[in-house]
Design brief:
The protein is mainly alpha-helical. The protein contains four helices and no strands. It has helices at residues 2-10, 37-42, 52-69, 80-83.
Length: 85
Amino acid sequence: MTLEAYADTIVPGQKRSADDRAIAGVATGGGAVQAGALELLQWDATGIHEGLDDLVRLVNEHALAYAAERGLAPDPTVPPFVALE
């Protein structure tokens, strides 16, 4: 979910359904996730596939710090980065 939200910040797209939390839905049409960004990131030929777990951890840690600085209470039912509006 975090990787989907991360990809959506780079190339936004529309939500896949009304309850989609990973994709913010700030654009119409398909975005990075719908275009297959996750499959591309996980493909060993990209050279970054082995660091994705670290990327997810760091993005979520940063989201927690961001939320704490602003007095936000992230939704504990989703990863911290996904919980940000």
